[in-house]
Specification:
146 residues; alpha+beta; four-stranded antiparallel sheet; three-stranded antiparallel sheet; 4 helices; 41% helix; 16% strand
């Protein structure tokens, strides 16, 4: 699959100060994702269809690529799917118990797209460290710590 034909890089003017760097130029479907038995939907951009375990991301969807590390051809599709899943988390549509699974999907798609397993593993480990940091920060905030 040549994913490069599915997206384009946004100009600085199009970004207009927003973090998004890329835009889908056609609909994209990622199959084989199991997020439970109910359909999930976000404002016409992201749709999870439980009946066939597919994540649909529509034309015009914008995402920021890999947040902490540089973007490569091996992480573009992974970052698209990962960002769409994280948007489901942020909007309260998907339970956070799926966060580790979303990070695993990122790693697996990178490997499918030709990344070395060790490099995909390094990026996956970074995502897991970020998840642990977020849990620690949330626990501290809940206790009123600074």
């Amino acid at each position: 699959m040549n994913f490069e034909s599915y997206y384009r890089k946004l100009t600085d003017k199009e970004r207009n100060g927003k973090p998004y760097k890329y835009e889908l130029i056609g609909n994209y479907v990622q199959r084989g994702i199991d997020l439970g038995d109910k359909d999930l939907f976000i404002r016409g951009w992201v749709y999870y269809r439980a009946s066939d375990k597919s994540l649909w991301i529509t034309k015009g969807y914008r995402w920021d690529g890999s947040t902490v590390v540089f973007d490569t051809k091996y992480c573009m599709r992974a970052s698209l799917v990962h960002d769409a899943l994280y948007q489901l988390f942020r909007e309260g549509k998907l339970d956070m118990k799926y966060r580790k699974y979303a990070d695993q999907i990122y790693r697996d798609i990178m490997i499918e797209d030709g990344a070395w397993k060790w490099w995909a593993g390094v990026r996956y480990t970074g995502l897991r460290i970020k998840a642990a940091w977020d849990r620690l920060f949330a626990a501290s905030a809940a206790k009123g710590e600074k």
